[in-house]
Each structure stands twice: as C-alpha cells, then as structure tokens.
Specification:
The protein is mainly α. It has 2 domains: 35 residues, no CATH class; 194 residues, no CATH class. Helices cover 72% and strands 3% of the residues. It is built from 10 helices and 2 strands, in the order αααααααααββα. Strands 1-2 form a two-stranded antiparallel sheet. A hairpin with an 8-residue loop joins strand 1 and strand 2. Helix 1 runs antiparallel to helix 2, helix 6 crosses helix 10 and helix 9 packs across helix 10. The protein is elongated, with a radius of gyration of 23 Å. The protein starts with a helix and ends with a helix. The relative contact order is 0.17.
Length: 244
Amino acid sequence: MAACINEAVNLDNGLKHNFLYNNDINCIHILLNLYDLEDNIRNIFPKYVSIKNIKNYISKCLKDKRGNELIAKNLGELIHEDINRLELYLYLEGYKQGFYNIKAVNVLESITVKYLSIEELYSLKYLFHFKTNIKEVLELKEKINTSIDRTEINDKFISENICKYTTNIIRPKVYSLNKYLDKQLTIDYCSKYYNIKEDSSFLTKKDLKNIYNEVYKIVLKNGLMLYKDAYWNGVNDKVLKRYK
C-alpha cells in the first residue's frame, strides 16, 4: 500500500515538474484526469493578471529610464508564457484542495439550500464563485482564506514553489533582458555636424536586480490571490456537482 502511495506521489510530482520546467502541456491534462477534475474545471480559468501588473509597474519604476515602456513590453513578451504556466499550476493546486475539502463543501451546501431550491441548483452553472451578498457565504469564504493564510505561514507551499520557479525560470530571463532591448538612435546636437549616434539605454545590474525583485513580489502576491480564488471555485463546484 505504501509503495503504491509513493509511486502515485512520484508520478504527481513528475508531471508537475515537467509541466512547469519543461513546458509539457500534456502533463496538465494527465493531472486533471488523475484528480478527476477535467469535467469540473473546464468552465473556470485562471485570471492571468501578473503580466499586466508587471508591465505597468516596471514601466513606472523605470520612468526616468529612456525607453521604459519598451523595456516593460519586452519583459512581458519574454516571460508571459512562463508566468501564465505558473499561475495555471497554482490555480490547479488551489482548485484541487478546495474541491476535495469535504468539510468546507458540506458547510457551503448547508448554507446554499437555505437560499436556493433543489431545482435551481440543478440548473446553475455557477454558485457563489464570483460574488454574493449572503453574509453566511461571505463569512465562510473569509474563514477559508484565513485558513489558507495560516497554512501558508506554516508550510510555505505557495511561496516556496514560486521562489523555486522564479529563481530557475524567470530570473535568468530577466537578467538577460539587455539582449532583447532595441538600440535607439538619437541625434548628437552638441556636434557641429549633428551626428547620429547609438543610445543603448541598457539596464545596469542594479536595474535588473530591482526588476527581478519587483517581478517576484508581484507574482507572489498574485499567486496567493489566485490560489484562494481557485480554492473557492473548487468548493463551489463540488457543491454543484452533487446536484448534477
């Protein structure tokens, strides 16, 4: 029995690693099948917000740097697929944990049947996934989020995964950003003949370090939010599945 469990864990970890670090998209579909989630998760997708936030923040952060918008744009193009892949992984992890949290699912179901009829539940595609004004539901969601925060403080699952991934995948690309910056041509007005010269606008090591640190902080913050959203969606979907 223990051998079977270890084999399953190794398979699970291997699939996650290949998806994250080797960009093997087939692994995510295998994982969904293993978790028996593919039919449930298909209508919910991660909100890929990190890249937009990263580009906006880096552009503002480098406001005194020539070509700051170009730098932010190039950075976004360079790492957006990697960031999206990480967010999809975090979403799947959160969704799985919520979907199989029977205690939370039971509590939400008991609240739900107070406000919705069985007939309504059979016809719903979404429950309280996105918004609600029901106090009991909001309190349950807040309780779940608090529990996730407490768990993260203790085991650091989200932060350690993000740190490892950004260090190995994102950091090298950020530090190679100068390779992807177009040299700009400017006119040297101090010259008698108005010579055209190259203005490299290259980023210093300090610039690159600051950019990476900001990218990491944004990904960490958004990753935790995404995990919580996915967890909540998983709880809601499990309730609805009971009436399908």
